[in-house]
Amino acid sequence: MNAKIRELLARSRQIEEDIEQELRQRRTALHADFENRRIRFEQEVLAQQRRFRTGLLAYVLGADWRHAATAPIIYALIVPLLVLDLFLVIYQSTCFPLYGIASVRRRDYLVFDRSHLGYLNLLEKINCAYCSYATGLAAYLREVVGRTEQYWCPIKHARRQFQAHPYYAGFVDYGDAEAYRRGLEALRSELASMGAEKRP
User: What residues make up the domain containing 84?
Assistant: First the structure.
């Protein structure tokens, strides 16, 4: 990777850190605190949040017809998501050790903290848990596939790839056969040196 790209990636990581710092300050301003990986709100904040909660019956009866009509389709997706999740766990636990790739901690990607919000009714909390699972699983899949791609095919595409995983920038340039042959083992070694993480 050339020096300019390395510098741009470092700046990008710094911007991400700055954004996270701002979000942390906002959580503090909203009196949300972490306690053993769980969110805890001060009681007066929680009481204020509950004033904005829509009752379950009013929420269901007031639902837009489009939401009610598409709910079975949305919730049917849980089956392929669960199958994908199972196969990801099996794939990673069998293949990654054989390839020497550090495993991805599944729990780092599946975050279920919206259930602590006092302004959500039961159905909204279920919907939020569903979305959290789906987006977390997508992020977990992206990480597992990104590490796999770095191991097997760390070559950039000829065209721009939108929303590339974090390893993509370190891949060799498209068409650079010498760099590919020279750098493949080094890129594979990086995966092992990430530090073995506990499996989910």
Answer: 64-192
